[in-house]
Structures are given as structure tokens and as C-alpha cells.
Design brief:
The complex is a heterodimer of chains A (390) and B (121). With 390 residues, chain A is of the alpha+beta class. Chain A has 3 domains: 148 residues, 2-Layer Sandwich (Beta-Lactamase); 78 residues, Orthogonal Bundle (Helix Hairpins), CATH 1.10.287; 161 residues, Histidine kinase-like ATPase, C-terminal domain (Heat Shock Protein 90, 2-Layer Sandwich), CATH 3.30.565. Chain A has 12 helices and 13 strands. The radius of gyration of chain A is 29 Å and the shape is elongated. Chain B has a single domain, classed as Rossmann fold. In chain B, helix 1 links the parallel strand 1 and strand 2. Chain B is globular. The chains are: A alpha+beta (390), B alpha/beta (121).
Chain lengths: 390, 121
């Protein structure tokens, strides 16, 4: 491209003050340099290189366009005087919080999609920013900076959010009507129901609850898929949470004559984890243990806290997971072939949600299973918020 | 308990009305945001059960207007909605609501208990 050639002749490909790259490259690898340049100038992503004190040493044409600048005129100038960034609340990002500064300070790469670039005379533009520390000449510190326009992605995400919010509202409204009217019927306030009527009402209630749970599960999945699940740690009573879940499972436990064999718990001191996550984990693991146990079988749980993390173990002596299906256990909508026979109406979302939530909170999920012998899960949940990944 | 129930879905409004009357509450009903504001201006309730997606003025607007009115800004509001996104919850609580309940997550009995909790004894 002629334009890039002009760049190079005037300023050098990477207009380092000493021009070390250009000199060396021109001499040794002229073709290679040209090829890289053609490549970079053809990218739709803005690519820049700056030195440790923030001087611009390279900008590709996409960067020129995105920032409304001309590399030939701004080469060697300090980048943060030329354009700004603002955060999601519209607040200008201070110099020390700018991605390049972060990378300079820590020596680590930095990626974010939370900022908008503010170039003079141009509309603010949402961008995904990636900064990588590199070295273009011996011993010198440089940064490779990439900006990608994410206007479209943001728009699609917003539409998806609005859709999910509205769809969940529209689904929940008739579900709450059924829930509350069933409650009235059940209360005998409108007259006592005979046994058959009571049995029918129980079915209506149970199936309505199944739909409510499914809507909740799908919403959690949508949130996970959008990377929007953020755990909110609070002090929780693990024992009470376990008791709540077991109380709800009691009818099935009794009906199947299951034995709760092993229930050791040692949870001294405050445990700070996301309560919704704890409920989902306990609900999924304990109800799986109950559902996939044979009549008269055994299951158990154990919770242990050591001041930093909570370990939850749940085991059963039930149908187990066939070895060849185990790698797919946590996949969305996956259901084991034997699980499908035992309980045809499962969603295949429970363990996917458990694993996603636990990992989002910085924890881990492990399991052991043998077909026709049983399954055990071990979950580790660190207290507080997961460490920020940079 | 003197309560104002703001709910546009008739089936839900009816069942809530009956439940609160059943526990001896003095119940006023409003079926849109404007009606809710008119009602509370003419007679201040002890607690308000407020839906969010409402005709004319939505629940957030109702809360905003209540905040501007010195007579209404301290009346406890419990949001009872099927919107459950964190953004909605945060916005509702920031606008002064005492609690945020999701209809499908509670029984009628629990709704009454929650509303009762915010009535000054």
C-alpha cells in the first residue's frame, strides 16, 4: 500500500527514537517488514505501539481512523494527551487507571471491554482494549495496544438483556397466578377438597414449581453465558441451608426409604459466600443424590469450613454415571443415559450451573462415579470475592 | 395494617386483595402508577406493595415521585414484581424501597409477613 510506504520512508515503521527496529529490519528482513506492515494496515482492529513513557511509535491506519488522527503527525507524541477513555458510568478514566499505565506498573498484560474511547471531535466509541508489554528493541519496554470497536456487540447484548428481562417477567406472571391460586385452593378457605382433588392440586403445584425452577435456571444460564454472573458473598448459615433443602426433599426421601447415613458438618465461624450460589449447589447435588438413588439406598453429605473456604461433599450409592459419559457431565443440557431412564423430565442444566457458578466464585468441582455403585461430588468454595484476573 | 396494593394484573390484584382482607388489613387498590400516587396522596397508607411494570407511570416513577414528596417519602414500600434482574433490584432499592420481592419466589402467606414487617408498630 502506497500510504504505508510513505509512513515508513518518513518515520520508519516503528518510529522509535533511535529507529532501531526500522534500521535493523530494513537491512536484514526488508520483505518481512513490508509483509507485517501490509498485514497491520489491513486490520480493522486499531493497533498501536507506545514506549514506556507513552510516546506513540506506531499506529496502523485503523487506529488513525478510530482516533481521528494521522500517525505521521502524532508519531512521538504522548498518547494520553491525544485521546481519553471513560468508564461505564461516563467518568473519565484517570491516567493511572488507563490500561497502558496498568501494564507499565505491573508488567502484566491487560484486557478490558468496559471503556469507551474519547477522541477529539468524534463520538465516544465502546472498545475492547488489549495491552501487552513487549520489547521492540533490546532492553526497552514497549506496549502493543489494540482497540476493537464493540458497538455492535454492546447493542446485541443490550437487546438480549432486555429480551431476557421481559421474557422472564412474562413467564413469571402466569406462574405466580397459578402458584397463588393453588395456595388458596389448598388452604380450604373455599371449601374442603376431597382426597382426589387434593392429589390433583398437588400435581398442579408441583408442575408449576417445576416451571418456575426451570425459568430461574434458564435465567442463571443466560447470565452465565453473558459473563454477567457476579457472586455477592454474604455471611450464610450453611446448616440451615442444608436443612431447608432436605426438608423439601423429605417426601421423596421417605417414599424411597433412603437412609441419610453420613452427615458430619464442621462449620465454625462466619462463612461468606453467595447465598444464591450455595442454595443452587446444595439443591442440585442433594436432589440429584436423592433422585438417582435406588429405593432403600443411602446418601450423605459433609460440610467443612476452615476459615478461608467451604468444602461441600455429597455422595450417593445410586445408579452412577457411565464412564464413557463422564467427560460430558457438566455440559449444558447433557443428561446421562441411565439418568434419563430414571428421571425423564430433568433439565440437564443443574450440574452445568453448579460448575459455572462455583468457578465464577473462584472455586472448584470434582466428582467420582462408578456405574451402579454411586457418585460423589466435592465442591470447594473460597470465601469472599474471587481474585481479580488481570 | 393500612395497605395500598399496586398491581395491574387483575388475577394477581384480586388474590392479593383477598389475602390481605382475610388477615384483617385495611386494603386500598390501584391498578396503574398514576392511580397509586393519587390514592396515597388522598390517604397515606402504612405500607405499599408496589408492582414495577405498570401502565401510565411505572413503579420506578412512582418511587421517584414519592421521594420528592415530604409526606410520602417515608412511607415504606415493598416492591412485588416479577422483574428480577439485579439492575432492577438495585434501582428499586436505591429509589427508597424497603424490600424487593419476586412473586414466583414467595407464597401469599410470605407476602403478608413481609408487608407486615414494615408497618410501624
Amino acid at each position: 500500500m502506497p500510504k504505508t510506504k510513505t509512513h515508513r520512508k518518513k518515520d520508519g515503521v516503528f518510529a522509535d527514537k533511535k529507529g532501531s527496529i526500522s534500521e535493523k529490519s530494513d537491512g536484514e528482513y526488508p520483505d518481512l517488514v513490508q509483509r507485517y506492515e501490509t498485514l497491520l494496515s489491513g486490520l480493522t482492529q486499531a493497533v498501536m505501539a507506545v514506549d514506556a513513557s507513552g510516546h506513540i511509535i506506531y499506529m496502523n491506519p485503523a487506529a488513525d481512523r478510530m482516533l481521528g488522527l494521522d500517525f505521521r503527525k502524532v508519531s512521538g507524541k504522548v498518547y494520553h494527551k491525544l485521546w481519553g477513555l471513560r468508564d461505564e458510568n461516563g467518568k473519565t478514566v484517570t491516567l493511572k487507571d488507563r490500561p497502558i499505565q496498568f501494564s507499565e506498573r505491573t508488567g502484566l498484560p491487560y484486557e478490558t471491554d468496559k471503556f469507551e474511547v474519547m477522541a477529539p471531535g468524534l463520538e465516544p466509541l465502546p472498545v475492547a482494549i488489549s495491552v501487552k508489554p513487549i520489547s521492540l528493541s533490546k532492553g526497552a519496554k514497549h506496549f502493543l495496544v489494540m482497540y476493537r470497536d464493540i458497538t455492535q456487540e454492546k447493542r446485541i447484548n443490550r437487546i438480549k438483556d432486555e429480551f431476557i428481562s421481559l421474557a422472564s417477567h412474562q413467564l413469571r406472571t402466569p406462574l405466580s397466578v397459578i402458584k397463588w391460586y393453588s395456595e388458596i385452593l389448598e388452604s380450604d378457605r373455599l371449601g374442603k377438597l376431597n382426597e382426589k382433588q387434593q392429589a390433583n392440586l398437588r400435581e398442579i403445584k408441583a408442575n408449576n414449581q417445576r416451571l418456575i425452577d426451570l425459568v430461574e435456571a434458564l435465567l442463571i444460564v443466560a447470565k452465565i453465558d453473558q459473563g454477567k454472573y457476579i457472586p455477592v458473598p454474604k455471611v450464610v448459615d450453611v446448616g440451615a441451608a442444608v436443612r431447608r433443602v432436605l426438608a423439601a426433599l423429605a417426601p421423596t426421601i421417605n417414599q424411597k426409604r433412603l437412609k441419610l447415613r453420613f452427615s458430619e458438618s464442621n462449620t465454625d465461624g462466619p462463612i461468606k459466600i453467595d447465598p444464591q450460589m450455595l442454595d443452587v449447589v446444595l439443591q442440585t447435588l442433594l436432589s440429584n443424590a436423592v433422585d438417582y438413588s435406588r429405593e432403600g439406598g443411602e446418601f450423605g453429605y459433609k460440610t467443612l469450613a476452615d476459615g478461608k473456604r467451604l468444602k461441600i461433599e455429597v455422595w450417593d450409592s445410586g445408579y452412577g454415571i457411565p464412564a464413557e459419559e463422564q467427560p460430558k457431565l457438566f455440559a449444558k443440557f447433557f443428561r446421562g443415559s441411565n439418568a434419563r431412564r430414571v428421571k425423564p423430565n430433568g433439565t440437564g442444566l443443574g450440574l452445568y450451573i453448579v460448575k459455572s457458578l462455583v468457578e465464577a466464585a473462584g472455586g472448584s468441582v470434582n466428582f467420582k462415579s462408578k456405574e451402579n455403585a454411586g457418585t460423589s461430588f466435592a465442591i470447594i468454595l473460597p470465601f469472599g470475592l474471587p481474585e481479580k484476573k488481570s | 395494617m393500612k395497605i395500598l396494593i399496586v398491581e395491574d394484573e387483575k388475577a394477581l390484584a384480586d388474590v392479593l386483595h383477598d389475602e390481605f382482607v382475610g388477615v384483617g388489613a385495611d386494603v386500598s387498590m390501584a391498578y396503574d402508577g398514576q392511580e397509586a400516587l393519587d390514592s396515597m396522596r388522598s390517604s397515606i397508607p402504612e405500607v405499599i406493595l408496589l408492582d414495577l411494570l405498570l401502565p401510565k407511570k411505572d413503579g420506578f416513577e412512582v418511587l421517584e415521585e414519592m421521594q420528592k414528596n415530604p409526606k410520602l417519602k417515608d412511607v415504606p414500600v415493598v416492591i412485588l414484581s416479577n422483574l428480577a434482574q439485579e439492575e432492577d433490584v438495585k434501582r428499586g432499592l436505591k429509589l427508597g424501597a424497603k424490600d424487593y420481592l419476586v412473586k414466583t419466589r414467595l407464597s401469599l402467606k410470605e407476602v403478608v409477613e413481609k408487608a407486615n414487617k414494615y408497618v410501624k408498630k
